[in-house]
Structures are given as structure tokens and as C-alpha cells.
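Figure caption, in words: inputs first, then the predicted bound structure.
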Amino acid sequence: MTARWSLSAAGLALAAVALPAQGAIAPEELAPGVTLVAGTFVPGHQPDGNSVILRGNKGLVVVDTGRHAEHSDAILAATAGMNRPLVAIINTHWHLDHVSGNPRLRAAAPGLTVYASSAIDGALKGFLAESAKAAEAAIAAGEVPADLVPEVRADIATTANGAALRPDKVVNRSQRLKLGGRTLDVHLARTAATAGDLWLVDTRTRSLLSGDLVTLPAPFLDTACPGGWRAALADISNVRFARLIPGHGPVMSRPDFDRWRRAFDRFIDCAKSSADEADCAQGWTQDLGTMLPGGEQRRATEMTRYYVQVLRANAGRNPNCNLV
Ligand SMILES: [Zn+2]
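Bound structure (zinc ion present):
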């Protein structure tokens, strides 16, 4: 999630809790050569997306690099023990919780190649520039809780140095890539969660990395085109996979994904109807049931309630559906 200055609206500005230290983010090998560095979403802070390290016989590929330094430190610590060079980053999309670590990883491995869609170019001129301006104003007006100011300033600095986030190689069509000795089927979804989302399948382990096309506790709809997003979910559902690693939240099975997708469809339909926004939010939480980790129901409800407002504000002329 990137959000304009909307932490409280999205229900994130609850009691501030310290971010976990690097050692607290323990990498987990989900399948041979597939290691998850889980993103955190601490109340009162902005999230980090999940990162995945793919280990091939010739090198390492990191999919998404998080937002906070604690997260990229955890990625670098995990790669250090793998005895292979870091050869590539794949960014599933340009939200700051997935790309902010790019410069730090590049500094550690100057020869690596960054792969992503070109959607960040429009975002740097539009959404991200506007977000940084709104955040500056919010800090100046004293609207940002004191202990959150450093990470908001970090986001502003990341955006100001936005050229360092851009891909070396633009992925402008779905294709098979061989990186570090690993074979990846990379899919491009236009106008979904952003104007260009990548999702990929590691062919050896049938691990599907969905980026923010699938997330818990709620879909991050700030820059979304719901129709394109639905089409991307239909494409994902046509693929056989052993596990789905979402952009945020725990690893999912096939039945988990099917349940999540049904909840997404029902939520979008509800937002399009004249139903009360609280009912749409409650429907999302109920549809997911036990898939929402304990204690996440409240945040899921607050976030989806906010996103009903976002979707309704864009209804009929959603600018995110005209970005290709
Ligand atoms: Zn995200």
C-alpha cells in the first residue's frame, strides 16, 4: 500500500508499536530454493510487502524489496548465507512497500539487473509525487504522529530519488525468464492493482508469486482498476500452483486463493452497489473467515470500508483504468 496521506483513513494509525528488529524477520524456506522474507504490517506503521528469494545454481533473484531498512537488511542477511551472487530483482509493482529496498540491494550487488513493468514512470510523475507533496504538508501541519515522521520522511526521500527505483529491463509482455539458473514464467497484468503488475510462477516448485493481486488483510485498492484486477485473478486461477505467496500475508493454498477471489468479487460488486459501506466491509471479513489471522478482522474492516469510499469516488471514470 502506498496511499496518499491517508493512514488514519485506512485504519493504520493505531497505537504505534516499534518495528521489529532485523533478527525478528526470520526467513522461511517454503520449498527448495524458495525463501520467504515476510513483510511486516505493524499497527501505526506503513507495511512492507512480502519478499521472496529464489536460489538458482548460478545466482539469487529477489522478488520485491520492501519499504523499511529493517526489511532490506533481513533480505541481505538471508542472501549472505546462500553463497551465490545476487543477480536480479523483480519488482511486482511500484508501490513503495515493494521497491524502496532496490537502491540498498543494488549497493550491495552493483551488477544486478532490476526487472519491472514501466508503470513506475507514470507513478513518479503522478501518484508518488502527489503523495510526497501531501505528506510534506501533513508533517508541516503537525498531522503525522511524531514517531511516524521518520518513516514518512523516508518515503519522501525514496520518491525524490525515484530514478533509482526504476527497472534496468522493462517487462512489457508476459514471458519466460531464466535468471540465476531459475526458470520463471513472468506474467504482465495491465491496469490491475497498478498500471502494470507482474506475477510469476517458479516452474520448478510451482510457487506462484502474486504480488499485490492477492493480499491480506485486505486488497490495497488505492491505485487499482477493479475490472483489470478481476481479469488478472482469472488468469491466475487458470494456472496450476502448489502454493501462492501473496504480496502481504501468509502463504495460501489453492482453496485459500479460490476463497479470497470469491471474497474480492463480492466486495467489488458490493462497492458498485448502493449497499452501506459498513456492510461491504463486514462482508469481506465474513467471507474470509479464518483466513484472516487473529486480531486482523478489525483492520480488514477499517481498510475495506475506506476502499469502498475510494472506489465510489472513482466510479464510472476510474483514471486507473485508462493508464495503458
Ligand atoms: Zn503492497
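Residues 1-5, 7-16 have pLDDT under 50 and may be disordered.
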